[in-house]
């Protein structure tokens, strides 16, 4: 039986309204997910960057309070170094706030740009944790500046873990920026005490067993990269690969250690 033209028109109107409502709902939940992902990213930025450095500065101030009566001159030198760290973090906070503004165009970083930023990080880590860092950036490739920021944070967190948890005396960090579409590779190794477990684990195994550096694993996972970890009595090696073309974020387990 053929529907009257009036009902057919009503059906088309309802169908169109349904499609529009579905699209609006999808946009709403997509926007909420993007906002949640952005909040998580910003929380990691604060935790792995400024807060870690300020925690180190607080430890140094505590040491200065014990030193000031014994060796005032040395205490003044340490205090001056703490002031430099705070000044660096003030600049970092300003840069961090600027990054919250909408980007007008894609920004590219060179290997030299990344090496300069990591060199400052190396100096601060050696001062904060008292170990020796052998740092190198290999290759002449270029990367998006946002990816350069992520590389910086990954190296920073690995150095912090080596000092705070592994009590390492020496750390080696290598970043390889090959040309073309080859992934970026980051290897950080230390001579510390290693994790409570021993052996080699890839990203999937670390997530399945809920072991390893949770924050670092989540960061790498959200970037579409892979993390492999080797833990021995002689130290730890973290091997990270990151795609140049960022993939869609993948779900990652929030369990595991904070190291």
Detail the topology: elements first, then pairings.
Elements: H1 5-48, H2 50-67, H3 72-98, E1 108-110, H4 111-129, E2 132-138, E3 142-144, H5 145-164, E4 170-176, E5 184-190, E6 199-201, H6 203-209, H7 214-222, E7 226-232, E8 235-242
Parallel strand pairs: 2-4
Antiparallel strand pairs: 1-3, 4-5, 5-8, 6-7, 7-8
Helix pairs in contact: 1-2, 2-3, 4-5
Q: State the strand order across the main sheet.
A: 2-4-5-8-7-6
Major sheet: size, sense and barrel closure?
A: 6 strands, mixed
Low-confidence stretches: 3-8, 247-254
Averaged pLDDT: 78
User: How many β strands by DSSP?
Assistant: 8
CATH class wording of the domain at 108-259: Alpha Beta
Helix/strand order: HHHEHEEHEEEHHEE
CATH architecture field of the domain at 108-259: 2-Layer Sandwich
Cα(first) to Cα(last) distance is 70 Å
What portion of the residues fall into strands of 2 or more residues?
A: 15-25%
Fraction in helix: 55-70%
Instruction: Give the number of helices.
Output: 7
Please compute the radius of gyration using only Cα atoms. 24 Å
What CATH calls the topology of the domain at 108-259 is: Heat Shock Protein 90
Summing up helix and strand content along with how strands pair, one would put the structural category as alpha+beta
CATH superfamily of the domain at 108-259: Histidine kinase-like ATPase, C-terminal domain
Note the overall shape: globular
